[in-house]
Specification:
Helix content: 25-40%
Mean pLDDT: 77
Radius of gyration: 37 Å
Number of strands: 20
Largest sheet: 11 strands, mixed
Length: 650
């Protein structure tokens, strides 16, 4: 794939009044700064010779020269302070030595030795020293003091009584220190970003205010004159193929200053925590294309297992990476079962396995696959009771949960769920939405404005994560854009290095994994799962045009559903062991028919057959959830039970 043409920064960063308007190359102007020191040294010799003739024997002249030299040294030290410690020290040293030479040569004559030798050596040394300093300063374009800060100072101080330092250019940004008067805070300047942007004729998102740690009145002001992300960024391919998920972050974009954007999913004790990721973006904001890049990078790692839940678009989004998906869930009933299994069986099984190795969280080489659970259009599942429990307990089990939806309003996701996400990525959102629901208040106050993008800038985003400095959270970024064929080639090409899902997690997923193995395991026999909602007209042996034998064709059919009726006569009770066997057989038959859940009310036929009461049934169902080969898993709502694979280990 051809790399995108890098957008060059315009001369003087495109900032009006901050820089000179001269653009053509001026040879004389470029050489003048290097000639100042040697020219001054050459002129100093005849001037000192004249001073020797006039005041060589005058003690008052010597005292005056001494005081003048001392004053010049102090002035040089003070004036050179903004230029850095090295330049300040060199300039002050040269000024002091020069004043000492003038005093000695005035008294003893500059044509006498060693004063003549000192003048010649000092001229060469001083000229070279200042030339080297200037060349080194020009060789560091990332941080240059501007020649005139009057324009920026006028723009800010006209709005608020702020004190600004000397602006500098760093990459594509102009940065200046800013301090508010005592008693005021930077919140006043944060509220004036639009006015500052108007002064320089840039977008409001190009102006950001960052506070210094431990201070509410000092910080820095950043202005980006030119949008460095306006052209699409092609996908550069996998960032670390063949390595562990825990060995390198996932790369998927670029920041406005050209730095790559990457995200750590896994934690490291004492360094960074493992994360869950919350993705926000309206239709057309580029959220789906970003997800494909993330998936493509993740599936080139050795120990990652991707599970995608998408009951809205189903397999439309994941088609480019379908060969690498461990589990794809597109059915509402399966998704409901998956979240319950994740909370009740998968997380406890994985944490127990990690505990046996004395690990407080997932680490590369622990024997468990890292699990990336990606829920697209997650608003449909945000109120699922098990999802909050998953978000609370999954991180230490080596499970990263990604919930992606368009809005995070209170009617779409409970606060207890939103609070579990340490990382947020926000693409363009609707202008009527509150950005504080997608990003932290500090990031919004610093200048993040995703509502200004909407769907007009696909791929633009802000990223908050523990592994990223907070000062960069308000920096606009853009995701890479990948061709579907490139992602497919990467996923299939690196398939040999991907390890299969670990046995612990596979066993915990149980029946759900068995139903999806046919389409997720390469080379497996593809047997479709029976669809209980199949049109009766398509079922074998059914003629939809043939009416039942016991109805009058001239009468309208009664379609009122007939409630299940229980016999009022008490049958003869069977042996308890036989009763349990009948119950097991009935549950196994339900599983063979494709049922994944049951309720005690669904077992009326069993009670009628064995002649026991509902109290016995409740006790028997509880027994089937325990032991080394449980048949059921209780769901803590509505008295339901999940059917597990018969004979599956706990």
């Amino acid at each position: 794939m051809r790399g995108s043409r890098r957008t060059r920064m315009p001369r003087q960063a495109g900032m009006p009044t901050l820089y000179s308007t001269q653009h053509r190359f001026d040879l004389a102007g470029a050489l003048v700064p290097y000639l100042v020191t040697p020219t001054g040294c050459l002129l100093a010799w005849p001037m000192v010779a004249a001073a020797h003739q006039a005041w060589g024997t005058n003690p008052w002249a010597a005292a005056g020269i001494t005081l003048t030299g001392s004053a010049l040294s102090v002035l040089t030290w003070m004036a050179a302070r903004p230029r850095g410690r090295i330049r300040q020290s060199v300039a002050t040293t040269m000024s002091t030595l020069g004043a000492a030479w003038v005093l000695g040569a005035t008294i003893n004559a500059p044509w006498q030795r060693p004063w003549l030798d000192l003048w010649a050596a000092g001229t060469v040394t001083g000229s070279l020293a200042f030339a080297i300093l200037r060349l080194l300063a020009k060789a560091n374009p990332d941080e240059q003091p501007t020649t005139d800060s009057a324009g920026l100072r006028e723009a800010v101080t006209a709005l608020k009584d702020a004190t600004l330092g000397k602006p500098k250019t760093r990459g594509a940004k102009v940065i200046t220190p800013v301090a508010m008067p005592r008693g005021d805070t930077l919140a006043e300047l944060e509220g004036s970003r639009d006015q500052v942007a108007s002064y320089f004729d840039v977008e409001s998102t190009a102006v950001r205010v960052h506070r210094n740690p431990g201070s509410v009145r000092t910080g820095r002001l950043e202005i980006v004159p030119v949008d460095q992300l306006r052209t699409p960024i092609p996908w550069a391919g996998p960032s670390a193929p063949g390595r562990s998920v825990g060995d390198a972050p996932l790369r998927f974009g670029r920041a406005e200053d050209g730095d790559p954007v990457a995200l750590w999913l896994t934690g490291r004790p004492g360094v960074r925590p493992a994360i869950h990721l919350r993705a926000t973006g309206m239709t057309g904001s580029g959220k789906t294309e970003w997800a494909k890049v993330m998936w493509g990078d993740y599936l080139t790692r050795t120990d990652g297992a991707l599970i995608v839940v998408d009951t809205v678009k189903r397999d439309q989004t994941v088609k480019p990476i379908r060969p690498g998906v461990t589990l794809l869930i597109t059915d509402d009933e399966q998704a409901d079962a998956f979240f319950d299994l994740l909370a009740e069986r998968v997380i406890p099984a994985r944490t127990a396995a990690l505990g046996e190795q004395d690990l407080s969280e997932w680490m590369p080489g622990c024997g468990l696959s890292h699990l990336l659970v990606w829920v697209e259009e997650s608003a449909a599942w945000s109120d699922h009771p098990a999802l909050v429990a998953v978000a609370e307990r999954a991180r230490t089990a080596g499970i990263c949960l990604v919930l992606s939806q368009q809005r995070w309003t209170h009617d779409r996701a409970p606060t207890s769920l939103r609070s579990q996400f340490a990382a947020n990525i926000c693409f363009g959102i609707d202008g009527r939405d509150d950005p504080n629901l997608a990003l932290s208040a500090a990031t919004v106050d610093a200048g993040a404005c995703p509502e200004s993008w909407g769907a007009s800038k696909p791929g633009y985003f802000y990223l908050e994560a523990p592994s990223i400095p907070t000062t960069r959270w308000a920096t606009p970024c853009r995701s890479e854009l990948a061709d579907r064929s490139d992602i497919t080639d990467a996923v299939t090409g690196w398939a040999p290095i991907r390890k299969p899902l670990d046995p612990t997690t596979r066993a915990a997923l149980g029946t759900l994994m068995a139903h999806t193995d046919a389409v997720t395991t390469p080379g497996a026999c593809r047997h479709p799962i029976p669809d209980q909602r199949q049109d009766p007209a398509m079922r074998p042996g059914v003629n939809p045009t043939d009416p039942p034998d016991d109805c009058d064709p001239s009468q309208e059919l009664d379609t009122t559903p007939t409630p299940r009726r229980f016999s009022l006569t008490l049958p003869t009770s069977v042996d308890p062991g036989q009763a349990r066997a009948v119950l097991r057989q009935h549950i196994a038959a339900l599983s063979d028919q494709g049922h994944t859940e049951l309720r005690p009310a669904d077992l009326g036929d069993v009670l009628e057959q064995i002649g026991y009461t509902a109290a016995w049934l409740t006790k028997a169902l509880t027994e089937l959830t325990t032991g080394t080969t449980p048949l059921l898993m209780k769901i803590d709502r509505n008295g339901r039970y999940r059917i597990l694979r018969p004979g599956q280990p706990a």
